[in-house]
Design goal:
Blueprint (H helix, E strand, L loop, with lengths): L3 E5 L11 E8 L2 H8 L2 H5 L2 E4 L5 E2 L4 E8 L4 E6 L2 E7 L4 H10 L18 H4 L2 E2 L2 E2 L4 E8 L5 E5 H4 L16 E11 L9 H9 L7 H15 L7 E5 L5 E2 L1 H10 L5 E3 L5 E3 L1 H7 L6 E2 L2 E4 L2 E7 L5 H19 L8 E2 L1
Parallel strand pairs: 2-5, 3-5, 4-20
Antiparallel strand pairs: 1-2, 6-7, 7-12, 8-9, 10-11, 10-12, 13-19, 14-16, 15-16, 17-18, 18-19
Helix pairs in contact: 6-7
Length: about 325
């Protein structure tokens, strides 16, 4: 383990933005992480913890210490028909999901092909096709930045909300997640209510799907809609799906009866950000080196050589456009640095 100076972060973010970190270190164990946190460089500089770099937009050089997590490993414990699977923070999320699918452990198959790492998943409470992390989350282990002490967090302590957790609010920048435990099932309880999954299963003639069937269908849907970060820089969904009140929804649906929406248990409504953006004419549009993906307006892309600030400014134009047409304010889902 060695703290390096003036390191390019280009290889470490899926938007493929070329900025530098004043200091950079990769840690491959909890002990190494604790040693870094106790170092003078860490104490004298601001820090940023980097996982897979897939939910991140870098807009400038980072004048501090970037800690890249390299803590890996998967362990399994079975109890009374339930399976507890623990993944190191640096495990690639899709590799972790694939491991569980191959073992026929149900619960994560709808989250196939989401970019990122296991450690980042709870921070964002990642979700797709009717499933969120909180549905199978059991606990996590994290290191407190200030003290270097280990602490375990339960489901209740994480305060999961839509694309949110305590680690993005009250405890932001206070802990570094080093491992996560999921409670999965050996007897599959598949969630197939999302229309796209049902349609694709039907197209394939699958009546009684397995965990693997669902995972393959989700992968197929995502590949068709989303760009490959290895060929074009992006961070997946750039904006959250906005949630509005029942009163606001009733006014909007009168003006836009075809508007894609989802009723929530609390009476509010979730709108499809991609649909709103597309209706404003942004799908496949490019300004300079920034643009939206041709197959999904929710995804912003680096068309080649874009700066982070250029992509950020492009996203601001989209936010303003949606606000003017629908009176809805989009919120960025990615982390801005």
């Amino acid at each position: 383990m060695q703290i390096q100076t003036n390191v390019s972060l280009l290889p470490f973010n899926t938007f493929r933005i070329n900025v530098n970190a004043k200091y950079f270190v990769e840690v491959k164990s909890i002990v190494e992480l604790q040693e870094v946190l106790a170092s003078d460089i860490c104490k004298e500089n601001k820090i940023f913890v980097l996982g897979g770099g897939s939910n991140l937009l870098l807009t400038k050089d980072f004048d501090g210490l970037v800690i890249r997590l390299g803590i890996k490993g998967i362990t399994v414990c079975e109890q009374d028909g339930e399976v507890f699977v623990e993944g190191g923070a640096a495990e690639v999320w899709n590799d972790f999901v694939s491991y569980c699918v191959e073992k026929e452990f149900a619960g994560l198959e709808n989250l196939t092909l989401i970019p990122g790492t296991v450690g980042a998943a709870p921070v964002q409470n990642i979700g797709a096709y009717g499933v969120e992390i909180k549905d199978t989350f059991h606990s996590l282990l994290a290191v407190e930045i200030k003290t270097g002490m280990l602490k375990s967090f339960s489901l209740a302590e994480c305060n999961f909300e839509y694309r949110d957790s305590v680690f993005k609010s009250a405890l932001k920048n206070q802990y570094i997640i080093v491992s996560v435990v999921f409670k999965l099932q050996k007897n599959a309880e598949l969630k197939l209510t999302y229309g796209a999954i049902q349609d694709e299963l039907k197209n394939r003639g699958i009546v009684n799907p397995t965990i693997k069937d669902v995972s393959e269908v989700v992968a197929s849907i995502r590949v068709a809609k989303l760009p490959d970060p290895s060929t074009i820089g992006n961070s997946g969904s750039f904006f959250k799906n906005p949630v509005i009140s029942k009163d606001a929804f009733q006014q909007l649906i009168l003006a836009f009866p075809e508007m894609v929406n989802f009723a929530l248990p609390n009476g509010n409504y979730k709108l499809a950000a991609g649909w709103l953006i597309e209706q404003c004419g942004w799908k496949g549009k490019q300004i300079g080196n920034a643009g939206t993906w041709k197959n999904q307006a929710l995804v912003l892309v680096n068309c080649g050589g874009a700066s982070g600030q250029e992509i950020f400014d492009f996203s601001s134009l989209i936010i303003q456009s949606v606000k003017e047409k629908f009176g809805v304010i989009l919120e960025r889902e990615v982390n801005i640095l």
